[in-house]
Design goal:
The protein is α/β, with parallel strands linked by helices. About 40% of the residues lie in helices and about 15% in strands. Bound molecules: NADP nicotinamide-adenine-dinucleotide phosphate.
Length: about 325
């Protein structure tokens, strides 16, 4: 797969990365270590070299599985590992404690990209305490780059002023054809500032592939049962887009997932990290790069997605 430089970093990453929330064993159903290892092995075989995880995913299990797989497969010098710190562990003492736990679980000396999972909601931790501690981790060589996730643009902008020798290189946010809030002010800011948007839920958690309908929902214990995108109202709204994605997939000889991801990879400032539960999904998602929708097809898809995104509601009661 083609590689690109991840924004202002020196990391040359595969054009499509991979999310490892699916290794948590709770939110997305059970998964064994051997299954997770098989996903990582196949993903790397087809060129994926960037993996995203987080401390909260399965309370460390995702980090443990990912780190162990990379170690056992002898891949450490071929892949980049991004992880996140819990949004309520942003005091200095908590960061210093967590980063050690995370390095141990991942089995690495330095974490390639360390992201704040979400801004502190309950603890009122001053943002500069957090940012200065992250900078300290970079200075100590425990972390190579720092990023944020789910930050409003104003907080992100302010957080950067707390740093002296480093900068925020990535912003991880929900972004896919039908969840487009980042279009309003975040993406213009990131493009202007040279910060990469790492797009989480780039497949809208599978909705864009057309596999889920009000009659065919994910398993009862699956995290998606409580996701507002999976209400009958929203699934029906998205359906014309699914049909257009399927039409394009047939025309280009691709799959719906590949079309939905290809819409994202056209923009050099957007970096998708689709989650995969099986080796087959990892292979399919890697096939989203290396080709391009025509300008007309891209624009039509973009417009249709935007129009539907404006009618989706997250209010469920
Ligand atoms: N920063 C944050 O707050 C945050 C939040 C969410 C996620 N993330 C990160 O972003 C990553 C991706 O987001 P996500 O997992 O929420 O959503 P996603 O990538 O949009 O959807 C992943 C799900 O879609 C299905 N899928 C994947 N590839 C497919 C394919 N080729 N064909 C058909 N179905 C396919 C799989 O579910 P089924 O097989 O069950 O359909 C998979 O579990 C996560 O793993 C995590 O690393 C970050």
């Amino acid at each position: 797969m083609e590689t690109v430089r991840l924004g202002r970093t020196d990391m040359r990453v595969s054009r499509v990365g991979m999310g490892a929330w699916q290794f948590s064993g709770d939110a997305w159903g059970a998964i064994s270590y051997d299954q997770a290892k098989a996903v990582v092995a196949r993903a790397v075989e087809v060129g994926i070299n960037f993996f995203d995880t987080a401390a909260v995913y399965g309370r460390g299990r995702s980090e443990e599985y990912l780190g162990r797989a990379i170690k056992e497969l002898g891949l450490r010098d071929r892949v980049y590992i991004a992880t996140k710190i819990h949004g309520e562990w942003l005091r200095r003492i908590d960061i210093l404690t967590s980063v050690e736990n995370q390095r141990r679980r991942l089995g690495v000396d330095a974490i390639d990209l360390y992201q704040i999972h979400w801004p502190a909601c309950w603890h009122n931790t001053p943002i500069c305490e957090t940012m200065k501690t992250l900078e300290e981790l970079v200075n100590k060589g425990l972390v190579r780059y720092i990023g944020v996730s789910n930050f409003p643009v104003q907080l992100l902008d302010y957080a950067r002023t707390c740093l002296s020798r480093t900068d925020i290189v990535t912003s991880q946010n929900r972004y896919n054809l039908v969840e487009r809030e980042a279009d309003k002010e975040l993406l213009p800011y990131l493009r202007r500032e040279g910060i990469v948007l790492i797009a989480w839920s780039p497949l809208a958690k599978g909705v864009l592939t057309g596999k889920y309908t009000p009659e065919n929902l994910p398993a009862f214990e699956d995290v998606r049962r409580n996701d507002p995108l999976f209400t009958p109202h929203n699934l029906k709204l998205v359906w014309p887009l699914v049909e257009e994605i399927r039409r394009l997939a047939a025309a280009y000889g691709k799959t719906p997932a590949q079309v939905a991801l290809n819409w994202l990879v056209r923009d050099p400032w957007i970096y998708p990290i689709p989650g995969a539960k099986t080796p087959e999904q990892a292979v399919e998602n890697a096939g989203a790069a290396g080709w391009m929708l025509s300008d007309d097809d891209w624009r039509r898809l973009d417009r249709l997605g935007w129009e539907i995104s404006q009618r989706i509601t997250y209010v469920t009661w």
